[in-house]
Design goal:
- Four copies of one chain form a homotetramer.
- By secondary structure, chain A is mostly helical.
- Chain A has two domains: about 45 residues, Homeodomain-like (Arc Repressor Mutant, subunit A, Orthogonal Bundle); about 140 residues, Tetracycline Repressor, domain 2 (Orthogonal Bundle), CATH 1.10.357.10.
- The first copy, chain A, contains eight helices and no strands.
- Chain A is elongated and about 60 Å long.
- Chains in contact: A-B, C-D.
- Chains A and B meet through helix 1, helix 5, helix 7 and helix 8 of A and helix 5, helix 7 and helix 8 of B.
- The first copy, chain A, binds a DNA duplex (21 and 21 nucleotides) through helix 2 and helix 3.
- Chains A, B, C, D: Keywords: DNA-binding, Repressor.
- Chains A, B, C, D: One of its GO terms (molecular function) is DNA binding.
- Chains A, B, C, D: It holds the Pfam family TetR_N.
Chain lengths: ~190, ~190, ~190, ~190
Amino acid sequence: MNKRERIIQAAVEVFREKGVEKTKISDIVKLAGIAQGTYYLYFPSKMAVMPAIAEVLVEKSIKEIRANVDREANFSIQLTQVIDAIFSVAENYHEMLAMVYAGMATTEHMNEWEAVYEPFYRWMSDFLKDAQTAGTIRESVNTERVSKLVIGLIESAAEQIYLYDSNREQEVNIQKQEVHSFLLHAICV
Amino acid sequence: MNKRERIIQAAVEVFREKGVEKTKISDIVKLAGIAQGTYYLYFPSKMAVMPAIAEVLVEKSIKEIRANVDREANFSIQLTQVIDAIFSVAENYHEMLAMVYAGMATTEHMNEWEAVYEPFYRWMSDFLKDAQTAGTIRESVNTERVSKLVIGLIESAAEQIYLYDSNREQEVNIQKQEVHSFLLHAICV
Amino acid sequence: MNKRERIIQAAVEVFREKGVEKTKISDIVKLAGIAQGTYYLYFPSKMAVMPAIAEVLVEKSIKEIRANVDREANFSIQLTQVIDAIFSVAENYHEMLAMVYAGMATTEHMNEWEAVYEPFYRWMSDFLKDAQTAGTIRESVNTERVSKLVIGLIESAAEQIYLYDSNREQEVNIQKQEVHSFLLHAICV
Amino acid sequence: MNKRERIIQAAVEVFREKGVEKTKISDIVKLAGIAQGTYYLYFPSKMAVMPAIAEVLVEKSIKEIRANVDREANFSIQLTQVIDAIFSVAENYHEMLAMVYAGMATTEHMNEWEAVYEPFYRWMSDFLKDAQTAGTIRESVNTERVSKLVIGLIESAAEQIYLYDSNREQEVNIQKQEVHSFLLHAICV
DNA sequence: TATGAATGAGCATTCATTCAT
DNA sequence: GATGAATGAATGCTCATTCAT
């Protein structure tokens, strides 16, 4: 039971293994242990499961970040932790996210993308606001807006690394440091 | 004649109108004014035209930027112009680019993505290097690497705006200013 | 309640609107205000409702005729009234009848068709017999058998008119007169 | 080659064997010896072949009649021959015709039905006109219009017989005679 | 009786690709 | 190089029917 969850989980699994195009509904339902028709009781089309998957992935991202940021540490360290977390999520899920993003971009679901990312933006916004209150971030920074820039920056930086798998290990650390430095200058006093 | 070009142009046109999934080879060749079989003399599969399209789009982007940046102006102004240019390109082509990106991500062509973007990165890298030589950008900035961060940042900022078409006009300008300020602090002396 | 009736009425409604093929059981039960499973308590399959519908339609036909034939008038006038009535029924229900006929022809229910028409044939047979007793119809006419010919003739004449909606108004009257004259000669003294 | 013909013939064959509903396109193309996709080069849907089949059947009917009517004989005999021919066609094809009629009624092709029957009506019309010229048929008869009544009458008479397979042999002959007598009275001097 | 969630067999249709000309 | 008729594999989706409650 809770068939909806089972479908989403199965879809994540199968999409990861075979890619979206080559995944058949029959693959998903087989793994979910339900009948083919049952899928359509929960999602009206193959692609309609995408936003639900995206939601799950974003949830995982936020959880990962929350788990790794030490809210007692100073801002620079916290920022390092945030970068680490986002890079870590990217390493594990960027392929899946790209897949889902592509799937949503291809169909009519693109408009749901913002809603899906909203919780992530809010977390970052709160995070920055706290630092601003503490006097670490310049008063002139619009935390609401910059939160999106920060997420966009870190994610695109991570993607640039993990998209092309060249001498990773080192690359990753250098990139992280560059982003860290870039951000500190960009927003701090 | 120059059938290859005609195919690419037709593909851009049709993809834009109907989306990648719903575009049939027959649509492309009809618009290109060639026979169905001829397509396969130039591209081995439906998706194989994607990198060629991406190349064209990136070329357009660079041309747009080159045309709008006044190399005599001071860095801050130039940066404004760069942001304007990238936002402008995003406004016109982000949908197409997302589509092409999705198309390449879906198939085996993702590895070509970096090569396609390379000229763009190089231009930005040179642009920053000049400013660094002029003493405007901090010595500690790795222009090579930061060029990618900058492009990633501006593009994601633009995408956040154009993806969801809310009260654009104002939004766009505010977002541009925020990015400009963000960047100046991030990299300048 | 009286769910059986409700199902039949709903089926008539929906079949008329969407055609048999495109009508789903779910459409019928929705309109009937009952659950999907309930349908199968009254009819063993989708098509099994067809004979019931046919019965209803034939009942309506007979009622229409009875209501319009003045049994005091002379035979020629009565015949005109019969023709009018059958044409009127055809105008309103021929589409539905064709649909039901098609539905029954498509499945195993065709054999029930005669039983459904039987009351109609009997009415006509009695009608002719009376006229024969009165000396209006030739003695040599086998009323039993000719009743079917007469119904077949009038119905096919009506169908030829209403199937193709060309300049109706006039057409209808001419056709009716032709049928009337045809019949009078065919069977009267 | 002449794939269109091959498709029509195969469709007639398979529809007759399995009925329209249970016939798959794959059955038709298999018998026609062509690829599945090729079917759709000639007919846009499964049902779209119906009018083409109807045409073939009507052609056969006309051929049958022409072959059996002795244009040297007197009208009464000729009429007997016409009735024989139409009954014979009905015996062989009424099931198929009902099927096709149902198929066309079910879909959007019903409007083509008249065009398909037109040649049949014309033949009958000419036939009656000749008899009228020869003084056998009353001057007051509108041959054009009555031709359709006559065809409708004979066909419905035949259908009534062959639809319900009761003690045929005798039935058929009685019915034929009744129709013959009915018609002679209806239209002759 | 009544329900309606669940089933899963079933197939028309599409369209990228091929190849004889 | 160019053509475009022919191919046929491939699958998302539907919906009549069932059955546990």
